[in-house]
Write a structure and sequence with these properties.
This is 4-methylaminobutanoate oxidase (Formaldehyde-forming). Keywords: Oxidoreductase. One of its GO terms (cellular component) is cytoplasm. The chain has 9 helices and 20 strands. It is an alpha+beta fold. The strands form 4 sheets. The chain has an 8-stranded mixed sheet with strand order 6-7-5-15-16-17-14-18, with helices on both faces. A hairpin with a 2-residue loop joins β19 and β20. α1 packs parallel to α5, α1 packs parallel to α8 and α2 packs across α5.
C-alpha cells in the first residue's frame, strides 16, 4: 500500500467526476487515492448544471452509464441514512416533427430493451402532467415515470463523503502546474507550490481545463469548451413543483420546475465557445465574448420553444445561468488511457451529461484503473478516436460546437 505522499492514484479535479471516481476507487482495499482541487469541491462546472437524469439515452453504452448513476444515488442515500434530493418526477418527451418523432420512437425502443417503464400518452395527458406545455393533437408524447433531476452539488458531495469515509484524501486549494513524466510514463504531478506528488496513475478529470493539462504530454483531447446555459423564470401558479421534466427535440430545448418557476434551456443557433488555453482559473462570473448575456440565443430560440410552451409570454425571467460544458464532435465522452502514454488517464468531455453519467463514469474508470473488465465497452470513449487533431484549432473547436447545436436529448 502506498502512502498519502506517494499514492497509487492522483485525481486532478474535485468536480462531480473526480469525486465519483474517487468514491468507486475507494472500494478497492489497499488502494490509496488523492484528489486535488484548486478551489472547493463541485464549485465550478458541476454546480451550474441543470442535472437532468433521464434513464434512457439513444445509445446502449450511454444508457448503461446513466443507469449506474441511479444505482449510485440509491446506494449513497442508504450509506448516509438519508435519501439524496433526487426529484423523481418523471420526464416527458414531446415532438411533432418527423426527426423528433423518430427520436421518441428510438427512446421507447431502448426503454423496452433495458426494462425501463415508458408509455405513449396523448397530447392532453402530456399537458395535464406539465401544464406549461401547449400541444396540438398530432403531438407524439412519451412518458417515463422513473426519471428525475437532482441538485448537482449535493450529489457531488455525497460521492466525496463516501470516498473520505473509505480513506480517500482530498486536498483543496491545490493547483496542479505540471504533469511529471519519465520517458513515456506519467509519474505524478507538481503543484503550484512546488510540491511533487508521485503516483502510479494520474487521472485528468479537470473539466474544461483537462485539455491544457494533457497538452503537456503531447496529448490532444478531442473536446472544446462550449457554452451551456439556461434561464429560470419568476414563480408562476401553472408550474407545479412536482411536474416532470420535458424534453422538446423539435426546438432542441428542455424545461423543468425550479423554485416555483420554469427552468428552460435552449441550444445556441450560433457557435459560442472558448479556447481551452485561455480559460481563467475560475469560471465564477465568467462571460463568453459572443452574446455574453444570452439575449441573442433567447431571441433566436424563443419562437421555436414558444410553439410548445406558450406560457413563456407570461413568465418574467429571474435568472440567467451560463457556464461551460466540454463537448466532443460525436457527443461521446473521453474516458480511459491514451495509447503510448503510460500512467495517464482522462475522464472528461461529457458533452453536457456529466451529472447524469457520473456514477457510470466513476465505476468505469475505477474498473480500468484496477484492471477489471469494464462494464461498458471502452471503444466509444477512446481518447485517440479522432486521430491527429489540435485541441486549440478553431476548425476543430467549431466541430465540437456543432455537436452542441445538434443535441436534442436534454
Amino acid at each position: 500500500m502506498s502512502t498519502s505522499q506517494h499514492p497509487d492514484v492522483v485525481i486532478i479535479g474535485g468536480g462531480i467526476l473526480g469525486c465519483s471516481i474517487a468514491s468507486y476507487l475507494s472500494r478497492t482495499p489497499g488502494l490509496s487515492v488523492v484528489v486535488l482541487e484548486r478551489h472547493g469541491l463541485g464549485e465550478q462546472t458541476t454546480s451550474h448544471a441543470a442535472a437532468l437524469l433521464t434513464r434512457v439515452r439513444p445509445h446502449r453504452e450511454l444508457t448503461r452509464l446513466v443507469m449506474e448513476t441511479f444505482r449510485a444515488i440509491d446506494a449513497l442515500g442508504e450509506a448516509v441514512s438519508e435519501p439524496l434530493p433526487l426529484r423523481r418526477v418523471g420526464s416527458l418527451q414531446v415532438a411533432t416533427s418527423e426527426p423528433g418523432r423518430r427520436q421518441i420512437e428510438q427512446i421507447a425502443g431502448r426503454a423496452a430493451e433495458v426494462g425501463v417503464a415508458a408509455y405513449g400518452i396523448s397530447a392532453d395527458e402530456a399537458m395535464e402532467r406539465a401544464p406549461w406545455l401547449t400541444l396540438d393533437q398530432h403531438t407524439a408524447a412519451l412518458w417515463l415515470p422513473d426519471d428525475g433531476y437532482i441538485d448537482p452539488y449535493s450529489l457531488c458531495m455525497a460521492y466525496a463523503v463516501q470516498a473520505r469515509r473509505q480513506g480517500v484524501r482530498f486536498r483543496l486549494q491545490q493547483s496542479v502546474s505540471d504533469l511529471l513524466q519519465r520517458g513515456s510514463r506519467v509519474t505524478g504531478v507538481r503543484l503550484a507550490s512546488g510540491e511533487c506528488i508521485h503516483a502510479g496513475t494520474v487521472i485528468d478529470a479537470a473539466g474544461p481545463w483537462s485539455t491544457a493539462l494533457a497538452r503537456q504530454l503531447g496529448v490532444n483531447l478531442g473536446m472544446a469548451p462550449i457554452r451551456s446555459h439556461y434561464w429560470i423564470s419568476a414563480p408562476h401558479p401553472r408550474i407545479p413543483s412536482d411536474a416532470p421534466m420535458t424534453i422538446l427535440p423539435d426546438s432542441g430545448a428542455y424545461a423543468r420546475p425550479e423554485v416555483g418557476g420554469l427552468l428552460f434551456g435552449l441550444r445556441d443557433e450560433q457557435a459560442v465557445f472558448a479556447r481551452a488555453d485561455r480559460l481563467p482559473d475560475s469560471l465564477n462570473d465568467y462571460c463568453f465574448d459572443v452574446d455574453p448575456t444570452g439575449d441573442e440565443a433567447l431571441a433566436s430560440g424563443y419562437q421555436g420553444l414558444r410553439q410548445q410552451c406558450a406560457i413563456l409570454d407570461e413568465l418574467p425571467l429571474a435568472h440567467y445561468i451560463s457556464n461551460i460544458s466540454s463537448y466532443t464532435p460525436d457527443g461521446f465522452y473521453l474516458l480511459g488511457a491514451m495509447p503510448g502514454v503510460d500512467g495517464f488517464m482522462a475522464a472528461t468531455g461529457c458533452s453536457g451529461a456529466g451529472i447524469g453519467m457520473s456514477g457510470g463514469i466513476g465505476r468505469f474508470m475505477a474498473e480500468l484503473v484496477t484492471g477489471q473488465p469494464p462494464f461498458v465497452s471502452p471503444e466509444p470513449f477512446r481518447l485517440d478516436r479522432f486521430g491527429a487533431i489540435d485541441s486549440f484549432d478553431p476548425t476543430f473547436i467549431r466541430r465540437c460546437a456543432e455537436a452542441r447545436a445538434r443535441k436534442r436529448t436534454g
